[in-house]
């Protein structure tokens, strides 16, 4: 990388008139970031102030290397949950070992993201289909909500699955703290009202739509500040669990303890965090880029997110990625360039330097309420209906991932989803669509006899196979082929149209050779038509072309012409030598 | 099933002139079966005489329900190895529990084969590609040979992998029995000479080729009888391990002890035994049926093999399937109907009733020699070269299975092979072939610009995607599409030719909608052409068709005509409403 490339192009081309938009957006986004940062750190099982550390330098890191102008990078609920789920089996939440583990996770996934960026391995994220990502996010949101009911009510819960957590919450509920429960529920109620009712109220008051939505996004900060004020005035901190002491000042440069056993245990979780974080962030950035007519560079995104995670680790934070909610605020509030991220970081730094005392008396139950409302927003059952409607197998993959995450946990759920999406893919390919086709009169086009009025021949059968031929579908293809042959008694010639066949594997080629022989027994010649170039190249390496009783035709139309002529003049003797034409 | 169907059709139509061929073939095949049965039972870790039990009733069971006229069903080396590999971790070889386990395995796989036959689930065997089956057989043969070196040399070996077994054989070799080693090596040498040299010798003596091959197949029986005679004459049984007492008489009807834990542990091995046995047997039967112009029925094969295994279990035997070598002998010796199997069973019954004493003095090292020669014949490195040459991924699947079986054992090897064959399938589909196409002048055909001299347009790009669109390849497709768009500056219209696309999943459809928007930003309209019926049906459930900036054309040719006309008269404004035509 050349030296001048270290200065990002947005900075070189910065126009002063952008400053106001960037600054306003930055302040609004950080008003949202502060309570979220505290809450998501708690969700990750970490001291809340570590969320502010994770919300500081990553903003700058992304601004240096990322390609989206308004993506807001920092702590998000899903990665906080994944951090907790990776660490709770191997360390006690809140312990020094646990905090070290969280830093290691951020470091590892940062390194992985950078590697993917430099090696062009962003395609790894293609293992995750949209239904799997949707199902994962919805399932993780359910898991998050299940885990926050206990802190909301001022009690404890344990367990790894949503069911275990909910059952233990119910078991522990007699010990719950009525003050905390009341305050938590009031906070929850206010936040729900603010999200659902406030935009409507503001709009009836004449506030413009985008602005109304924007203002309602600041409700969590308001509720947080109000609860702090009330707690301070009435000294509720003696009865309620509060966030407690936050060390004032900027984070120190930190290096985690490199514990090899722990690193080994965290490799897979870090990879999943990197992939999920990347996919989520990319989809947010892409939506915005599309609206703004900007160009997004997946590799730049990987480098930006990788740097953000490294900086989070070096400043003692945890894994971060692009936040959907804060990016939306940034966008709606008129940010023009990544400078808004840098300004937001300065705002967070000011909070850390001068305002940490404010948040010490923030009740934990209020944080839980903000997490629940944020997570509820991530549950997307409409996506489930949409995928199911579009294709049952896509619906199955999303439903399976969702249930997997809820019932078996974060990683098992992802594993199940990826497995399901590949299994259904292969299942579909194993049941290929095969059409008997005929020529559309007056054209050279051959179409399905069931969908079109077409011309067919009594002694020539045209079969189009709509799938690659490989070991798990070749039996089904054979069965269908012989069933059609059985049906048409006076058959002399069978033409397989391979226009949709992009690959034939060695199992299928072996079976086709047998089919060729079996048809010869019945005095039927086998022809191929519309064979693709790469397929024909490969066929040349097998014995099929030499043994083929019929010919290879450039198109079904040419096959029809040749065979009609042949059958009239030649009385259909199966003696034409194979003469491969050159199709595309 | 109606009553008269219980009498197989070959029996109803039996012609007396077939009898001589059937009888001669039966006697030759059982001459081969007797030493193999004893040897494979030993290979399975069972008392050798159980091999004779497994070689008796299964022949009759298959004759009743199977569809091949000459398939010889009974003990085979591969299933013997799989029996040993499934049972050694859970019982001591030779113990009552172990024998019970072997009977349970035969029973379970018999039930599974029958279920597959009645439920039409024979397609389960489609999970096994040809390279995986080839690799498995070769790998298992190596494993068998590794395990037989110790008995050949009169010593012991332990371990599960080929390497462990060989190392322990070398460790134990100082304790080997020089008498046994000498006799074993002489037997091995004679058998190799018989297999390689005898046919040649017989042919130079004027014996016809098939007959020479046939006679050389009887060499093992000769070597066995000779070794028995020598042992009896010189009383070597005092120095050499011999087969020992064989209970005279036919097997009793047996039911295994139904130990639920053991049944649970054997479910997966039984399924793999059923599938491998079925695939192997079917391929043998198919080769013969093709040569004889017979019709093979996969479901009848499942019922035949299932019954054979049940009868093996009920008579105290182990898992059986069609034997390649004995079927070949049966075929070459002129068998005409399954009666040859029934006659062979009678021959085995006579051996069990009157000739068991003969085999008590058969040295174990000679059995080992016959197993080694039979297994060596199964190693097929030419298949590896063939698959690798045809397609690297097929070669990889075979090589992976082979190495997997040798290094990690039978089931792990199969698992690795199946995993590899699916993984390479998906890997290939993730790197789709995409061609820029143009019209072949004077025709309506569009072909790859790199392979043909074709006509292209400066303002219209025709792209043909040769793969289904799904989550793991849509990124690659997007990248290629935008790279082509970048290359052609004056572009107004992009036509995606979907003639090879049989499915578009919901991830891909979502991304195509974004592509449609992205192209709109650049003032390029997106058109689709040659969309298949089922694909178009599904597209109708998404928003793509409504949002599409271009049109859906029946063919690329029609698209070219329409767009040329349009661009001349309409100055290329992106305003034509989508009007889906009806393609096939």
UniProtKB/TrEMBL annotation, chains A, B:
Membrane topology type: Multi-pass membrane protein
Keyword terms of this UniProt record: Membrane, Transmembrane, Transmembrane helix
Keyword DNA repair: no
UniProt keyword Translocase, yes or no: no
Subcellular localization, as worded in the UniProt entry: Membrane
UniProt-listed InterPro entries: SLC26A/SulP_dom, SLC26A/SulP_fam, STAS_dom, STAS_dom_sf
UniProt-listed SUPFAM superfamilies: SpoIIaa-like (SSF52091)
Spans through the membrane: 20-43, 49-65, 72-92, 98-121, 128-150, 180-202, 214-236, 262-290, 302-325, 337-355, 362-385, 405-427
Gene3D superfamilies assigned: STAS domain
Signal peptide positions (record): none
PANTHER family: SULFATE TRANSPORTER
Protein name: Sulfate permease
Residue ranges occupied by any STAS domain in the UniProt entry: 450-548
Species of the source: Microbulbifer variabilis
Domain of life: Bacteria
